[in-house]
Amino acid sequence: MSEMKDLLITNVRPVDEQRDGSETVDILVRGGKIADISQGNAGKGQKRPKQPGAAGDVPVFDAKGAYVSPGWMDMHVHLREPGFEHKETVRTGCAAAAHGGFTAVACMPNTNPPIHTRDVVSYVLKQAQGLPVDVYPIGTVSKDRAGKSISEMADMKEGGAVAFSDDGDPVQNSQLMRTALEYAAMLDVPVINHEEDLPLSRPGHMHEGRVSTRLGLAGTPSIAEEIMIARDILLSELTGGHVHVAHISTRKGVELVREAKSKGLKVTTEVCPHHFDLTDEEIERQQFHTNWKMHPPLRTADDVEAMIEGLKDGTIDAICTDHAPHSVDEKEVEFIYAPNGIIGLETAWSIICKRLLSGGILTLQDVIRKLSVHPRNILRIPVPKLEVGEPANITIFDTETEWICTPESIRSRSVNTPWLNETLRGRAIAVYNNNQFVS
What we know:
By secondary structure, this protein is α/β, with parallel strands linked by helices. It has helices at residues 90-99, 118-127, 153-159, 174-187, 198-201, 210-215, 222-239, 251-262, 281-285, 301-313, 328-331, 348-357, 364-378, and strands at residues 2-3, 7-14, 25-30, 33-38, 60-62, 67-70, 72-77, 102-107, 134-137, 190-193, 206-207, 219-220, 242-245, 267-271, 318-319, 394-404, 423-433, 436-438.
């Protein structure tokens, strides 16, 4: 990571709403803004700057034919600060994000104290100052995430919160959810709900189905997610509030969102790479390894196919990671005692390449919309543009580089990933944002 207001990126292929990665250009950044985009030179009437060395030269980064897009955003991460810095901090989480190609993240409020007042929002924003990754706090729906009384939503929004969620504690009280959506409609922000009917789902440790029965583990049924999605869609219709369905994982859930969208309701959703790549059978294959324990749990092959269908037809708006760091000693326990969650910022792109790009399910432009455009649109955040005069906020990436996900390669403070020590293909090469270049 380095302060670098001026930079020439050569031999790079732009991907955005207008460009599909078929042309190769040079991008000149001056003073943190895109000064020129040109075919094989540094600017109209200018000579290409020499390699760095002599005083006054612009540093050059040769992308060697890689792609460049507006910077990616992960709208669902857990940075753990304040309160759980042994798992992650704002700084280490942003280092992982930049390494994975993300220039922006929205962080969930399950901290200690929770992000339930303006001062905690301010604390998170202060910790993020000067970093190459923009951090957008998500405030709680209820005080202390206790599900009893509404939080100070307007005050938190004024302080910088971009959405509201009680995160892993779903809003069970329907009246509270109605009130939150009414406030959210006035504030023009989404309410993000972890869709789970707790009495139906507890004490589930994996997806309820044939595998859980065979293994003798208490399961979380799909219906627990789907009932809550249906309720929130109805409340969105009643209030006019924007419901965002967090980390969707079941076929019926996707169908419910698809139907809501067909009616023009303010309902959006996201999906994680592990939910369109892995199934509940992995828990048996991996002999109860806790890096395959998450919530929502890994579902069936049919559910995985439904996630891919939802991404393809536009029902699923965004790809997120639900990046959830846990320390080694927390995860190295019996499966039923382990906390839910895996890290995902640094492996997301490789899984996207594997499941969505290599089979031609989505185009590069489709994926960039779900990684860069839609998350920001959902959160009412300006979308970066690959245009002259715009602030340089970009991700450089390829789809072919093979790499091994080792503990040493991970920038996160935690290493709880099911792809640990796996050979992956496709990698984020560098990001530029906030006058900083990270490669």
